[in-house]
């Protein structure tokens, strides 16, 4: 009797990340892993790595960095509630993401300008660059 795919112990990391809905396609998951945005125990991973229950992964997507612990394995992509049962995000990770989101919303991370510099401001910038170099 054959095992169901979701009960399979041999799952590729890129397939698990896709099934857990961190990435829209397996190709995007594989590209993120290869570009060093997925770490396990402080080291970069390979797409063929087999995640095990209890493994802790650090995922960077956009501005966010999540630390998740593997709770279940699946090779099938299902609905969001079922996908969220595959992992658990650590409390520190949730707090960091919420704090970063609040800072972004407040505009603390971006530089706000009034648009293009005036002719006078541009001359001052050029003078500053010339004197520094």
Description:
The chain has a domain at 8-97: Structural Genomics Hypothetical 15.5 Kd Protein In mrcA-pckA Intergenic Region, Chain A (Roll). 38% of the residues lie in helices and 16% in strands. The protein contains 5 helices and 5 strands, in the order ααββββαβαα. A 5-stranded antiparallel β-sheet has the order 2-1-3-4-5. Strand 1 (38-40) and strand 2 (43-44) form a beta hairpin. Helix 1 (13-19) crosses helix 2 (26-34). Belongs to the HSP15 family. Residues 11-74 form the RNA-binding S4 domain.
TL;DR?
The chain is of the alpha+beta class and 133 residues long. Helix content is 38%, strand content 16%.
The structure class reads: alpha+beta
How many strands, which pairing sense, and closed or not: the largest β-sheet?
Answer: 5 strands, antiparallel
User: What is the global morphology?
Assistant: elongated
Helix content: 25-40%
Task: Give me the count of strands.
Answer: 5
Question: The CATH topology of the domain at 8-97, please?
Answer: Structural Genomics Hypothetical 15.5 Kd Protein In mrcA-pckA Intergenic Region, Chain A
CATH architectural grouping of the domain at 8-97: Roll
Distance between the termini: 74 Å
CATH class of the domain at 8-97: Alpha Beta
Q: β content, as a range?
A: 15-25%
């Amino acid at each position: 009797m054959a095992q169901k795919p979701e009960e399979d112990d041999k799952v590729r990391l890129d397939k698990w990340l896709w099934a857990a809905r961190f990435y829209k396609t397996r190709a995007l998951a594989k590209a993120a892993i290869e570009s060093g945005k997925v770490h396990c125990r402080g080291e970069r991973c390979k797409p063929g790595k087999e995640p095990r229950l209890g493994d802790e992964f650090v995922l960077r997507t956009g501005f966010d960095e999540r630390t998740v612990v593997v709770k279940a394995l699946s090779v099938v992509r299902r609905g969001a509630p079922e996908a969220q049962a595959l992992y658990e995000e650590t409390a520190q990770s949730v707090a960091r993401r919420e704090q970063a989101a609040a800072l972004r919303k407040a505009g603390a991370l971006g530089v706000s300008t009034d648009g293009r510099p005036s002719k006078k401001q541009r001359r001052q910038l050029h003078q500053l660059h010339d004197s520094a170099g």
